[in-house]
Design a protein that fits this description.
It contains seven helices and eleven strands. The protein is α+β, with helices and mostly antiparallel strands. It has a domain of 142 residues: Aminopeptidase (3-Layer(aba) Sandwich). The strands form two sheets. The chain has an eight-stranded mixed β-sheet, with helices on both faces. A hairpin with a 7-residue loop joins strand 2 and strand 3. The radius of gyration is 18 Å and the shape is globular. 28% of the residues are buried.
C-alpha cells in the first residue's frame, strides 16, 4: 500500500503517502480517512480515460483531467521539482504542498477551475499540469499556469498541455488568459506567445503580469474527440 492512515495530533486522521513528509488530506473519522486512502490507491493504479500524446523527443505521456484521487501524484511530484522550478511556478521559495493546497489543486469543477495533467505511462508518475482558474470579477478571463517536472522539461510537454487547456477554456467561454511570472521566464513567455499577442499589464520588480487573448479557431474538445474517433486527428 502506498497510502496509510494515522491519527492527527490536533484531532482527526491524516492520510499520508509513504516516503512523503506532508499529509495528503485530513478527515474527522478513521472510516473517512480509510475510504480516502483506498480512493488514492485506486487512483494510483488507474491508467484509463486519457489521451496518449507523443512529445518532441519521441517519448509519450498520458494526458487527462485531474481528479480528487490524484493527491498522491501531486505530493510525490513535488520532490521531482527543483528549487528553480518551484520558484518559477510560485514566484517564491517554499516547502511542500499543504493539505488545503492539495485539495484546491485536485478537487475542481472543470468549468471555473480546470486542470489537465500528464503522466508517465511507464511509471504512472505525474510529470506536468496545466490549469486555469476563472476570474470571478471578469468571467471571460482566467489565470493560467503550467508546471512540468524537471526531467520532462524541454520536450514540448508544456505547449501540448497549454493547447488542451485552451480548448477547455474556450468550451467554458473563457477568452483571455492571464499569468503572473518572472520576466526572465522566456520559456513560459514563448508558450503564451504561441496563443497570441502577449500584453504586459503590470511590472513589479522581477515579476510581470500578462494577458493573452485565446485564438478563436481552437476546436472544441467534443469536436476533437469525434475527429480522433474517426482517425482524422493529428496530435500536436
Amino acid at each position: 500500500m502506498h497510502c496509510y492512515v494515522e491519527p492527527s495530533p490536533a484531532g482527526g486522521y491524516f492520510v499520508r503517502l509513504r516516503g512523503e513528509a506532508a499529509p495528503l488530506s485530513r478527515h474527522d473519522t478513521e472510516e473517512e480517512a480509510q475510504a480516502a486512502a483506498a480512493a488514492y490507491e485506486r487512483g494510483l493504479q488507474r491508467r484509463d480515460n486519457g489521451e496518449f500524446v507523443l512529445l518532441d523527443d519521441g517519448s509519450e505521456v498520458l494526458v487527462r483531467a485531474i481528479r480528487p484521487e490524484d493527491k498522491p501524484l501531486f505530493a510525490a511530484g513535488w520532490s521531482h521539482l527543483s528549487d528553480a522550478s518551484v520558484y518559477k511556478r510560485f514566484l517564491t521559495s517554499r516547502d511542500a504542498l499543504t493539505v488545503d493546497e492539495l485539495a484546491f489543486f485536485t478537487e475542481i469543477d472543470h468549468v471555473d477551475h480546470e486542470a489537465i495533467g500528464a503522466l508517465d505511462p511507464a511509471t504512472g508518475e505525474g510529470v506536468g499540469v496545466a490549469r486555469y482558474v476563472r476570474d470571478v470579477q471578469r468571467p471571460h478571463v482566467a489565470e493560467a499556469a503550467i508546471v512540468v517536472v524537471d526531467a520532462w522539461q524541454g520536450r514540448g510537454l508544456g505547449g501540448k498541455l497549454l493547447r488542451r487547456l485552451c480548448v477547455r477554456a474556450a468550451e467554458n467561454r473563457i477568452r483571455v488568459f492571464t499569468a503572473a511570472l518572472l520576466a526572465t521566464n522566456e520559456a513560459m513567455l514563448a508558450l503564451f506567445a504561441r496563443l497570441g499577442e502577449v500584453v504586459v499589464t503590470r511590472r513589479d520588480g522581477p515579476t510581470i503580469e500578462i494577458d493573452v487573448e485565446l485564438p478563436v479557431e481552437l476546436p472544441t474538445l467534443e469536436h476533437t474527440l469525434r475527429e480522433a474517433a474517426a482517425g482524422r486527428v493529428r496530435k500536436r
